[in-house]
Design goal:
Length: 163
C-alpha cells in the first residue's frame, strides 16, 4: 500500500490526475488538432451542397426588392411561409405565399402616395385687370392736392392741475 501524504482520504496521490475531478479539458491546440482530425476523416457519404437560387438582397429594414412581376414569380418561398416583395420598377408590392404542400400563390398590391393636397394641375393665374388701379402720375397729383389743403387745426389740450 502506498503512502498518502494528504491527510484526507479520497485525494489522489501525486497531484493532479485528469478524470478524477471531472472530464479533462483539452487546451486550444488539442482542440484544433481534434477539429482537423475530424475534417480529414473521410465521411461515409459526402454531404450534398444545397442548391441555392440567388435571391434579392434585403436592406437594413428587411425589404426584399424584386424586378417586376417576373422577379416576384421567380422568387422561391418556403412551404407555409409568406414574404413581402417590393417592386423596384413600379409602385407595387407582391405578397407571395406557399401553402403547406409548397403550392405558391401571389397577391399584387399597388400603392399610391397619400398627402395633404391631391396632385391636381393648378389653373394658370388669372390676368390682372389694370383698369381698377391708378397710375403713378395720378397718385402723385392726388397726394400733391391733399398736401396743399390746410390741415385741420388741432385743439390744444387743456392742462389740468389736480393739485
Amino acid at each position: 500500500m502506498a503512502f498518502n501524504p494528504y491527510p484526507y482520504p479520497g485525494y489522489p496521490m501525486g497531484g493532479y490526475q485528469p478524470g478524477v475531478y471531472g472530464p479533462a479539458v483539452p487546451d486550444q491546440l488539442a482542440q484544433l488538432r481534434m477539429q482537423q482530425g475530424q475534417q480529414l476523416q473521410p465521411a461515409a457519404q459526402p454531404p450534398m451542397a444545397p442548391i441555392q437560387q440567388p435571391q434579392p438582397q434585403a436592406e437594413a429594414g428587411g425589404i426584399l426588392w424584386v424586378q417586376g412581376e417576373a422577379g416576384a414569380k421567380a422568387y422561391l418561398v418556403a412551404p407555409g411561409c409568406t414574404v413581402q416583395l417590393w417592386d423596384s420598377e413600379n409602385p407595387t408590392i407582391y405578397l407571395k405565399s406557399a401553402d403547406m404542400s409548397g403550392m405558391p400563390s401571389m397577391r399584387v398590391l399597388d400603392y399610391t402616395e397619400r398627402g395633404g393636397a391631391p396632385a391636381v394641375q393648378q389653373d394658370p393665374p388669372q390676368p390682372v385687370d389694370m383698369t381698377q388701379y391708378i397710375t403713378r402720375d395720378e397718385l402723385e397729383s392726388i397726394l400733391a392736392e391733399r398736401l396743399k389743403r390746410p390741415q385741420r387745426p388741432q385743439k390744444a389740450k387743456e392742462e389740468t392741475d389736480n393739485g
